[in-house]
Amino acid sequence: MNKVKLMICGSEYALSTDEAPEYMEELAGRVERAMKELLVNPRISLSMAAVLVALDQADTAEKALHASDNLRAQMKEYLDDNARARMEADRLRQENSLLRQKLAMLGQE
């Protein structure tokens, strides 16, 4: 477990995490940049900016989750199609082999 201190918009946050400190600092930097973009508007408070950034990040995560679910489903379809094609190829190879044997027997007659 790593102990990490992060500064976001002037506030310090002490965290315990399994993630690398550099990764957590990168995330904190993204959050701070997003919050600072919002804070240029004087009507947006620090807490409002934090909530808006959290909503945006939750939206991004949800869309990424749906996209990965869709990709998994597509990959499963491709794998199923591939398995069917392999089975059909095997069946056709066997049929081809039988037909060659029959042709050879007919050629001997």
Walk me through the topology.
Layout: E1 2-8, E2 11-17, H1 21-39, H2 46-108
Describe this protein with a few key phrases:
alpha+beta; two-stranded antiparallel ribbon; 75% helix
In short:
With 109 residues, the chain is an alpha+beta fold. The protein has helices spanning 21-39, 46-108, and strands at residues 2-8, 11-17.
Strand content: 5-15%
- Beta-strand segment tally: 2
- What is the general shape? rod-shaped
Which structural category fits the helices and strands?
Answer: alpha+beta
Low-confidence sequence ranges: none
Following the backbone from N to C, one meets helices and strands in this order, namely EEHH
Describe the sheet with the most strands.
2 strands, antiparallel
Let me know the average pLDDT. 96
Helix content: over 70%
Number of helices: 2
With strands numbered from the N-terminus, the spatial order across the biggest sheet is 1-2
End-to-end C-alpha gap: 80 Å
Whole-angstrom Rg: 30 Å
Structure characterization notes:
This protein has a two-stranded antiparallel sheet. β1 and β2 (11-17) form a beta hairpin. The radius of gyration is 30 Å and the shape is rod-shaped. α1 (21-39) packs across α2. The longest helix has 63 residues, at 46-108. By secondary structure, it is α+β, with helices and mostly antiparallel strands. It has helices at residues 21-39, 46-108, and strands spanning 2-8, 11-17. It is built from 2 helices and 2 strands; from the N terminus they run ββαα. Helix content is 75%, strand content 13%.
